[in-house]
Structures are given as C-alpha cells and as structure tokens.
Design a protein that fits this description.
The chain has five helices and six strands, in the order E-E-E-E-E-H-H-E-H-H-H. It is of the alpha+beta class and 151 residues long. The protein folds into two domains: 43 residues, no CATH class; 105 residues. The strands form two sheets. A three-stranded antiparallel sheet has the order 1-2-3, with no helix packed on it. Strands 5-4-6 form a three-stranded mixed sheet. The longest helix has 18 residues. The radius of gyration is 18 Å and the shape is globular. The N and C termini lie far apart (47 Å). One of its GO terms (biological process) is negative regulation of DNA-templated transcription. GO terms for molecular function: ATP binding; DNA binding; zinc ion binding.
C-alpha cells in the first residue's frame, strides 16, 4: 500500500476493524518512512453494475457518487461519516444481492431516501427536494407531513 503523503510503498497496519455489516474492513495504517497515518477500506468487489439514467444513458455504478450525495444532504447535521459510509454500504449490498447488472437511477434514489430517513430527517428532506425535483413549497410540506405521520 503506497503512502498517500510521500508515496513510499511500505506501511504497517495499526488497527483493523470489521464494520457492523460485516462487508467492510477499516484499517488504520502508518507509513514506515514519513510516519504519516491514513485509513483504508477493504470491500467485496462484485461484477459491474450499470445505472440507467432518466434520459436512457448508461453509466458504470459509482459508489462515491452516492456517498457524495449523502454527504451533501447531511451537511451541518450530526450524522457521522461512519454512519454515512454504512448507509452507502447497505445500498451497495442491496444492489449486489439483487443480482441485476442494470439498475435505474430512480431505484438508487429510493434506496438513498430509505437510508436517509433512518439517519436524519433534515437530510431526508434535503435529498427529497433534489430527488423529487420540488418546484413548490407545498411539496416540502407534503414530505414533512409524511415524516410527522410516521412518528
């Protein structure tokens, strides 16, 4: 494993932990040259999944795009990066277990909304406003009423 700071190719593992899903190993590493510390993640790799966009285009599934979207929705909320990573892992595992090589962006959006609903209501509403393309204040109110009724 190359050090991201100095590029030296020898590091040592300081700590390894399996996350609660059992699908990801988090490792803290230290460079033997510059003593820089960094974190790596090991995950299962399955065959490629392609996302079918609303306009019919296909693109390779990108886990990082989902994480960025969740991070944006969770900005200025108390949701930890670890919880966001777990949500993304859950989404990826659901997609991989489905066995489908192609999945619609709409289906991915629904999965993200399910995860955000359990993480933080504000993040859920933020994501919903983009995902559902809100044009009027009434659409916000509908989502908020839905959340209140579920409690």
């Amino acid at each position: 494993m190359k050090c991201p700071y100095c590029g030296f190719e020898e590091t040592r593992v300081l700590d390894s932990r399996v996350d609660s899903s059992g699908f990801t190993v988090r490792r803290r590493r230290e460079c033997l040259k510059c003593k820089g510390r960094f974190t790596t993640y090991e995950r299962y790799e399955f065959g490629p999944i392609f996302v079918i966009k609303k306009d019919g285009r296909r693109e390779k599934f990108d886990r990082e795009k989902i994480l960025k979207g969740i991070m944006k929705a969770c900005e200025k909320t108390p949701v930890s990066l670890e919880d966001m990573e777990k949500a993304v892992d859950t989404i990826v595992n659901i997609l991989q277990k489905s066995g489908n090589l192609e999945v619609s962006s709409t289906e991915i959006g629904k999965l993200v909304m399910e995860q955000l609903k359990g993480l933080n209501e504000v993040a859920y509403v933020r994501f919903a406003s983009v995902y559902k393309d809100f044009r009027e204040i009434d659409q916000f109110l509908e989502v908020v009423k839905e959340l209140k009724n579920e409690k």
